[in-house]
Amino acid sequence: MIGVLSLQGAISEHAAVLNKIGVSNKAVLNQDDLKGLDGLIIPGGESTAIKKLMAYNHLFPAIKKLIQEGLPTFGTCAGMVLLSQPESFDMLKATVVRNGFGRQQQSFEEDLHFDALADPFHAVFIRAPYLTDVAADVNVLASIDDKAVAVSKGNVLATAFHPELTDDVRLHEYFVDHFVN
């Protein structure tokens, strides 16, 4: 069972992709929803709002503990920000640049090469962050110039873009196959 943090952001889109690939999932709204999860998706949205809502719903410490204990976690866009900020989950040692590619009007799409995928992945960047100064123990899976836009480390996968907004299910399959199973 994959949980989708359901406080703010691209929630239904992630659930739809998981349904499409035949993976059972549920909304995570409170601590009880964390029980029995095999993995967690932290969706794109607004990282500050998500963090405040996690605190309000008493989810932040519980989720941080689960991730630190090895719960497979996939963060997209705002999820990447939360996974890399020292004051948030602090799982990815790197410098995160929020809205690094610009504001809403600078949103764009780009085909990215991943070593793990045979064909390029068409990525949707909306007010996207990126990572710089990535620590040696963080695997950069895709980048644009010197900006890391997809990374992994241990039980964590993070993308600066929104794979849930395309018809391509390969990154969700990659998460399930390489992190959850």
Produce a short descriptive summary.
Helix content is 26%, strand content 27%. It is an alpha/beta fold. Helix 2 (47-56) packs across helix 4 (78-84).
Structure description:
The protein is of the alpha/beta class and 181 residues long. The protein has one domain (2-180): Class I glutamine amidotransferase (GATase) domain (Rossmann fold, 3-Layer(aba) Sandwich). Helices cover 26% and strands 27% of the residues. A seven-stranded mixed β-sheet has the order 2-1-3-4-11-10-9, sandwiched between helices. The chain has a two-stranded antiparallel sheet with strand order 5-8. It has a two-stranded antiparallel sheet with strand order 6-7. Strand 6 (108-112) and strand 7 form a beta hairpin. The chain is globular. The mean pLDDT is 94.
CATH homologous superfamily?
Class I glutamine amidotransferase (GATase) domain
Main sheet, how many strands, which sense, barrel?
7 strands, mixed
CATH fold descriptor = Rossmann fold
Total domains, how many?
1
Question: Count the helices. How many?
Answer: 5
Distance between the termini: 11 Å
Order of helices and strands: EHEEHHEHEEEEEEEH
